[in-house]
Amino acid sequence: MTSSRARSRRRALKGGGAQADAAATSPETGGESLPQKANHAGLHHARRRGWYHPVSFWESLSIRPRFYSAVLVGSLAYGLLPDSLALAVRAAITWDLGGLTYLLLALRLDFTSDAAKIQKRAARRDDSRLIILTIILLAIAASFAAITAVGLEAKLPETSAKEKMSLAALALFTLVISWSVTQIAFALHYAHAFYRPDPGSDAGRGLEFPGCDRPDYWDFLYFATSIGAASQTSDTLVKSHALRRLVTLHAVVSFFFNTAVLALTVNISASLAG
């Protein structure tokens, strides 16, 4: 009798241990043991530090040299410009210098890379959607500030013809910089989304370039400028939901940006002529 009870107790303990092991490695835990899942969760938490964390801050500086260099140059320029300039003019010049820095660094650091380097770089460096949105808003604000400054200064009776032409040149240069920076930012993001699939997203490899399996940055710039100029895609096929949403945003922003710039330019031209 005692032996029978002992065997029953051993079977119960063995069954309980098996159930515990099954629960620890059940599909709900992703097929991992609880210590493994806890360890992975800890690593995931460590990787997702806040931007204010010292390690995350310096990592962000190292992987986004274009953006932070442009911010630094723009900030220095704004502080060095004389206070006698109109606020809109100072803002436009600040944006122009920062945007030009962003463009030059992108052309130097990125557009000399082949597909293999892009794939390696995309695994650790990308301009997030927040940064792209910030760039777009700054581009629009700077463009409108420059054009508005030209219009207001042109209407002043003490403004000479030479000063009007200088303001018009500033406005034109600001428009070119703003449009170019926006397209470069989108092109880089398209490239990194193509070569770095995100977990749970279908964005990776979501573009198909005819006759090209491993596109470089110039291919993505071709795709971005087609949308930026015509608000529509070219011969490149978009095959993912995530990139379709981004392309839609790009096309809508480009349409309103181009329309507003055209309308304001006509207005400024009339003011300068008058």
From TrEMBL:
<feature type="transmembrane region" description="Helical">
    <location>
        <begin position="246"/>
        <end position="268"/>
    </location>
</feature>
<keyword id="KW-0812">Transmembrane</keyword>
<dbReference type="InterPro" id="IPR006311">
    <property type="entry name" value="TAT_signal"/>
</dbReference>
<feature type="transmembrane region" description="Helical">
    <location>
        <begin position="167"/>
        <end position="188"/>
    </location>
</feature>
<feature type="compositionally biased region" description="Basic residues">
    <location>
        <begin position="1"/>
        <end position="13"/>
    </location>
</feature>
<keyword id="KW-1133">Transmembrane helix</keyword>
<dbReference type="InterPro" id="IPR009781">
    <property type="entry name" value="DUF1345"/>
</dbReference>
<protein>
    <recommendedName>
        <fullName>Transmembrane protein</fullName>
    </recommendedName>
</protein>
<feature type="region of interest" description="Disordered">
    <location>
        <begin position="1"/>
        <end position="39"/>
    </location>
</feature>
<feature type="transmembrane region" description="Helical">
    <location>
        <begin position="130"/>
        <end position="152"/>
    </location>
</feature>
<dbReference type="Pfam" id="PF07077">
    <property type="entry name" value="DUF1345"/>
</dbReference>
<keyword id="KW-0472">Membrane</keyword>
